[in-house]
Design brief:
Elements: H1 2-5, E1 11-12, H2 20-33, H3 40-53, E2 57-59, E3 62-63, E4 66-68, E5 76-86, E6 96-104, H4 109-123, H5 126-134, H6 138-148
Parallel strand pairs: 1-5, 3-6, 4-6
Antiparallel strand pairs: 2-3, 5-6
Helix pairs in contact: 2-3
GO cellular component, one term: cytoplasm
Main location: cytoplasm
Subcellular location: Cytoplasm
Length: 153
């Protein structure tokens, strides 16, 4: 399921941002540039508001910023990686290197929850995180995700 959402050209292998807000801005702009959204400011505000509830820095060098919003028509997933690590107010206090931005429309609640759960399950696996950190190309990332995702039930 994840590999269908995470297609090539939906990845940023070298984030330029140096802080949490910068990451969210860069990811929002990527969504806009890829035609996922028409209003980058609205998505950015939604992501910032989501972060105020509780950080999406889930630990183990991973963040899963996500939002349900009507600025998108369907589910989208973007993978991004920081070369230097970013202070993201993670639950474990460690810097974040791996980012999965997941957005979807408000009406997609059931699929949205399932996909969030699958991403969370996937990044708990140490060998998966290690492989993603070592990935040099979009093909490498795609292969790691596809080979380790849970098969649909």
């Amino acid at each position: 399921m994840l590999h269908r959402l995470l297609r090539k050209n939906f990845m940023i292998l070298h984030l330029k941002a140096k802080d949490k807000e910068g990451v969210l801005r860069e990811l929002t702009n990527a969504c806009y540039e890829r035609g996922f959204i028409d209003d980058p400011e609205e998505l950015f505000k939604t992501l910032i508001e989501r972060e105020k509830i509780i950080t999406t820095g889930i630990g183990r060098n991973v963040a899963l910023p996500h939002a349900r919003t009507n600025v998108v028509k369907k589910l989208h997933l973007i993978f991004a990686k920081s070369d230097t690590g970013i202070d993201y107010d993670s639950l474990d206090g460690k810097p974040v290197y791996l980012f999965f931005l997941f957005i979807g429309p408000n009406r997609e609640n059931k699929k949205y929850i399932k996909i969030l759960a699958e991403i969370s399950r996937l990044v708990r696996i140490e060998r998966v995180r290690d492989a993603l950190l070592k990935a040099k190309t979009e093909e490498d990332v795609f292969k790691v995700i596809k080979e380790n995702e849970k098969l649909p039930e």
